[in-house]
Please model this.
Amino acid sequence: MENRLQIAGVVGNSPETRYSPAGIPIARFTLRHQSQQSEAGMQRQVLCNIGVVASGEALLQIVQQLQTGEGVRVIGFLARANNRQGENRLILHADSIETITI
Amino acid sequence: MLDFPSMSGPILRIAIPSPLRRLFDYLPPLRAEAGFIPGQRFLVPFGRSRQVGILVAIADHSEVPADKLRPALKALDREPLFDPTLMALLRWACDYYHHPPGEVFTTALPVALRQQREAGARGIEHWRLSATGRALSREEFRRAPKQLALFHLLEEYPQGVSAARLDAEFESWRPVIKRLREKGWVEVEERPCLPEPAAQPADTAPPLNPTQQQAVTAIGEHLHEFQALLIEGVTGSGKTEVYLQAIDKVLAAGCQVLVLVPEIGLTPQLLERFRHRFSLPIALLHSGLNDSERLCAWSMAREGLAPIVIGTRSAVFTPMPKLGLIIVDEEHDASFKQQEGFRYSGRDVAVVRARRHNIPIVLGSATPSLESLHNALAGRYRHLALPERAGTAVHPAIHLLDVRQQPMEEGLSAPLLKTMQRHLDAGGQVLLFLNRRGYAPTLLCHDCGSVSHCLRCDAHMTYYARSGRMRCHHCGAERPVPPQCPDCGSLDLRPVGQGTERIEQALNKLFPQTGVVRIDRDSTRRKGALDALLAEVHSGEGRILIGTQMLAKGHHFPNVTLVGILDADQGLFSVDFRAGERMAQLIVQVAGRAGRADKPGTVLIQTHVPDHPLLRLLVEQDYAHFARAALEERRAAQMPPFSHLALLRAEAVDKQAPLTFLEEARQLAEQLPHEGIWLLGPVPAPMERRAGRNRAQLLLQADDRRTLHTLLNAWAPQLEGVKSGRKVRWSLDVDPGELF
Model:
């Protein structure tokens, strides 16, 4: 099944990294997205936040350089992630991250 | 009638290692002189191989047809290895535990004698340079570089060097040293295998307090009569001193003493006290010896050359011609019961042995087993209590710490952390007890919730962070930490729960200035590691100790002022009827490490069930009150010691085979007189799958021991003939220690 998301925005908080028991780095940060989109033929503004998980050494190199407010483009897939309150949320698992100028 | 010429001679009935519950008949060796005595070893043909067996009885006829009888090949001993009393004890053990005699008698022999080695206290060879050798110049070796190298090595050991050391330091040294000996430059000497005792004892006996004095007097009252004494002495009450002074009396009467301990490696301090008190050879018998050392120590005991024998479980079968006293220290310890093969209880066999030798036996513990306590309360054992700590030490104050709804930092509650800081600030040491090895009991997938299971057992795999591996504590299986969840592929695996390794890591973070020492089976695996860790604690370098039940065993940490028991609840909710007893014993033994010198101790027990009646009794009263209440529970539930158990276990790869065999076994039992015996099962074992095998069990329970054994006598031999028994591995466990 298709599950592909490409989204750009700014880094909302500086990423936190932890390691899985097998030693794989797992970094998390929030991406803040703001853009103009067209809907029903009309322009509108879109504002949303989405959690990004970046796992593995390759992505860690990039993620560790990220500064709050820096522009990034993330490509990956969506998966469920329950937050502490038990609400169902979606989170973006990155397989590519690149910094962009905004 | 035909006369078989071979029937005229005696028939040797020999115990041979085999799973069959019987002796094997042989004719005497062809060119044998007369004079066969039970207890001698014989080399015999067995099937297509040769075996070493022990002559158990001499008969004048055999049920085996004469043409099937074979002669033994030769006698291996002139003298019997076991005296008649010990032979009788071993025969009793075969009958009582319903175990094949070959395996029972083999258990009683040092490994070297299970082969054809000669019995005897041979020394250990040591080599050194002779006077001429020492005077040699290097010139002599111009054309013999190997000899020169060995010569240099020997120069480093003027006192002589053992074969074991040479093996480690010089490749194929034997031919080289042989040439040096032929030239008269090297001499060899046999040293006694036991460490040379000091010329004078280093310690003298301290004065006893009145209760200690009473105990010593009671033990010495009737030295040549059977008497079982239970010493219930709180930790630090000076039980060991009672042993030492009682032993002194027995030695003075010219007798030998047998001391059984749970694990020698874990109790170096006990050993030191014996060495310092008695300037006599002490034979140690434990699994850490190599075959030669063990044979030598065993032979010294058998020849009466070692007045004191200290050993673990199997030392109970050591021949001692002048045995005058048996002491079983920490008699409650589960390791006295063998868990595989010949499943005997070293403690129980010791009591029978003392009775057969007509000598006193002392069972000592701060936390007596409910069995022994029951015997004492019923008047079968003499009950001696040592309620006071010896010297100036006072009892530690024990408190329950209700951790419900408390914020926990890696299993450590805030009040515990605060108390730890206070004790560390005051210069004390802190001991934390958690009976769980590894980093975390398992890994949990945060995305799908699946946990790491052992593929071969019904058990979790324990997570070891430092080595990055998963280990099964039940079958030993090991694999690397999975990079992702095997079920959903997520990377987000998380350790759940705490093991000692995780606590150690947390402590290093929380108390960065304080040395943390972890003592468990993993951190002490290498030889000498335990000693090094203990030294770190004694030097004061390590001020927080975190460890498992290894810490509970007789160690003496005079500076520990606070003991924290991190999880007291494990033992309260186990399927095994002995779990509560074991947990209480562990808590008391660990608590006893606090404040043993002149510093008062505190014990904090973290629990989620602060109202548990038995836990309260243990904390607010003491073990003695707990034990009596636990005994009442056992009486109400008709569990041992108020009933007697035998457990028939069966396991096989096939799931159905064990149950089929046990069902057939049950039917056999039902056809025998079984009034007064409950046949419970067959049922799957509490841990059904272990090491890839499915396990099931059939429990036999009776109020009367004799009733149970009457059935077992008839039943056990029948089990050997059960056809479905060939598809399973089965064992009969009399007085099982645990029902797993």
The longest strand of chain A covers residues 25-39. The domain at 5-99 of chain A is CATH 2.40.50.140 (OB fold (Dihydrolipoamide Acetyltransferase, E2P)).
